[in-house]
Records
---
Amino acid sequence: MNTPIDISEESGVRYLHFGSDWVQGAMRLRKPNALELTYTREMMAGLLFREAPWPARVLLIGLGAGSLAKFVYHHLPEARVTVVEIAPEVHAVAHQYFRLPDEGERLEVHIGDGAEFVRDDPRQWDLIAVDGFDRHARAGALATQPFYAACRARLATDGILSVNLFGQLRGFKTQLQRLRKAFDGQVLDLPECDSGNVVALASPAAGQSFDLATLKSRAANLKAVTGLDLRPTLRRLEKSGACPDGSVSL
């Protein structure tokens, strides 16, 4: 069954919808390789907790408008990106309307089921970013305990799993519980965005503590080098009371 796709534009931003009002991706026409939506920026928050040239190997589950793929491709030149997208028509739209680069040595698009890919493909990844939903905002197999366990098995020692969750929808707390179980509690859930999204980061390694001053310095450098601004994320994290001792653990 084909995915119903709609495209809209407003105030210089092009949006992708899957037959509903839910925004599945966005691109500012004047900055096509920037991350327009707050939650997509926070999907890359792992960059605050690892030093360059991390990540070298990136797996993206769910293509959407190609925002994450384009960001990594254009701003992290050491990284190779594999995208798994279940709907071939989404891949076509990302090319035609959202300036997804052609496939090559650094970008591979696999049409298939993301959960099956993680289960069956033996490669190891530095960053796995999961942002896959149907038109009803359901993640299906991408929100299950076996899937999160499979993601952990596919991460390198210093790897990070980044997951887009919907904080306002039923099942959110259950997904966090599954993540924590799969990663022995090494999970950082960022404060909910205005859009209702919550991004959770999980690491298979023993938890490291990062002081806020270091993270703020890294955020400023990241903004200067790539244009990605995660300083508001750190301010929200600090304001939420999640780091009372001035540090964050992941």
---
Amino acid sequence: MRTQFAAFAEEHGVMVLSPLFVAGIGDPTDVHNYKLIEYRGIRFDEVLLAMVEQVAQIYRLAAERFLLFGFSGGGQFVHRFLYLHPRRLQAASIGAPGLVTLLDDQQPWWVGTGGLASTFGVEPDIAAMREVAVQMIVGADDTDTDILVEPESRLYMPAVNDAGATRIERLQALARSFRAAGVQVRFDLVSGAGHDTGEELVLDRVQEFFGTVLAGSRRAV
């Protein structure tokens, strides 16, 4: 994906940062740690912000606000990062997350945003979220139900499967929760794309969305 953003970076005069978070921390089989933001005392949102700050200093970039895209597990990270740091984002593209955190303070973290303050020390800043351009994107053929969380899973929580059986249904539920709070969402259902196929089709839509955001911000200047 980093390579596929190269032409976009050249065209729009931006830098692409493609973080690779460490896996297998304390558990050699674990590759999911970053998705829920915090893992064994590690705050992956703060890790990302430190990466952005380091790159900004080296290359003298304006990075107070940036564009953030993630797909699958990355899509999980992006929308949870948005809850915590909306003022750092100009745009967020949330791609096909298997598990979603609804913008719903009646559901406990991480099924919803209830108790976010006790977990992370902040409440969702809805006003700031409304200032972020949000895209939610998923392939029209992304219909597998292997994302259902079984009761024996360490991730199981009551209501964890209530958002839907497929990534499409779960992303639609996430979009509804955003819109109910007054956060505008562009929803892209990409024909011909599944979860492991049609990557270029998805990235074309993401880049078109980001290009529109960048063009609008430059006109505003």
---
Amino acid sequence: MAKKAPRRTAERILEVTLDLFNRFGEPNVSTTLISAELGISPGNLYYHYPAKDELINSLFERYEKALSELLGAADGVRNVEDAWFFLHSLFEIIWEYRFLYRDLNDLLSKNRLLETRFQGVLKNKTRAIRALLSGMSRSGALDIDTREVEATANCMVVVLTYWLSYEYVRDPRRALEPDNAQQALLRGAQHVLNLLAPYLEAGQRQHLLQLAGVYQTPT
């Protein structure tokens, strides 16, 4: 049992660090604050993670793994209902690691590993969205010119990547609080899917409007 203790401490450090990063933003959280929140000495923290970048990179690896597992499901999207569920699930992962998106430009400017790995994330998101478009086209839910697929996929990825930043700018004091999570994610999924509205089969377009109506709240 004693051999498992260090691993458990390392897990607790990451859990608390993620919570603090999400609440206050990564630039505003020091390793001193993390160790104080955990009730451990700074030396104990440094034993597991000798630098703050190692904490960030470890959390990013978790995010990347969860994202990769979900993106594989894009091949199974056939209609608006599937796409809505897929995009909402994607936003849930983004929300869980929202510090990455809230402080994205700052993080990329300071962390070379994150800079290169996040480029891979964008490529994987775009690849998944192209698969989503392809599946919906084959099923007849979507009618889009092949020449428009790349630009449409890129636009969808832009909204996916910067939606939480938009929410934050719109309402800095409340946007990234847990109580507002579901509505923020639903709005994000709706706006990404709205980019497909001109290409949707009539019944599918109506279904999108119905879904949006069910979850619509004043902004």
---
Amino acid sequence: MDATRQRFLMCRPTYFAVDYAINPWMDPTAPVDVDLAIRQWERLRQVYLDLGHTVEEIAPVPGLPDMVFAANGGTVIDGRAMAVQFRDPQRADEAPAYRAWFEAAGFEMYDPKHVNEGEGDVLLAGDHLLAGTGFRTAHASHAQLQEVFGYPVITMQLVDPRFYHLDTALTVLDERTVAYLPEAFSPGSQAVLRRLFPDAVHATMADAEVLGLNAVSDGRHVVLPEQATGLAAKLRDRGYETIGVDLSELRRAGGGPKCCTLRLRQGKANR
């Protein structure tokens, strides 16, 4: 298996907090250790650097505690960036901050016509875009994704509110292989996944409940929550090298490694 060098965008959790509840993971009454969240995030960033990847950073904005979850800031493929429109007003001000960063970085910009929460719900798998819907990103946005990026879009219907974004229920391991939790998808979407990825890795509920599928793969190395031991073992059996990280503090808001990581695909040569 060959690793592909990646370029990522991340946001330091300087202002991380759980001040509201917009998913089942969030409990505003439970205390949050911001210093621990920063240390765990810094460890994730260092793992990427040690693997030879490039990490860009967007400046955190006071009052936007979920801005650390950079994957929701946009979708970037072949040098084009689609900005986002969040479902919840608590996150709305993240959208212009990320859009400004993409524009300054020189990406060709597109604005969403419907609710679209970026790479949280849009995953490039080979020559297809897997696009989640059911809780956040609107199904109507999938047509625009296809028009902007020129990849066939496959709709994935999510059915379990704990796995409210596609990247909490499925991870792309390489151009031909994914790992996913079957129970997180509707029967029709499960059938599509079986047809598209007959050799997929099936995660257990126990590993999904620690956000084990919220992982980042470069085609050889898979960075995932260290608590997802069963999934890690399955991936190693398939020949992947796994790297466990502890993002338990950020999990209080429903985020893991992938949530913190937006892939910046500059051009077709970097697919």
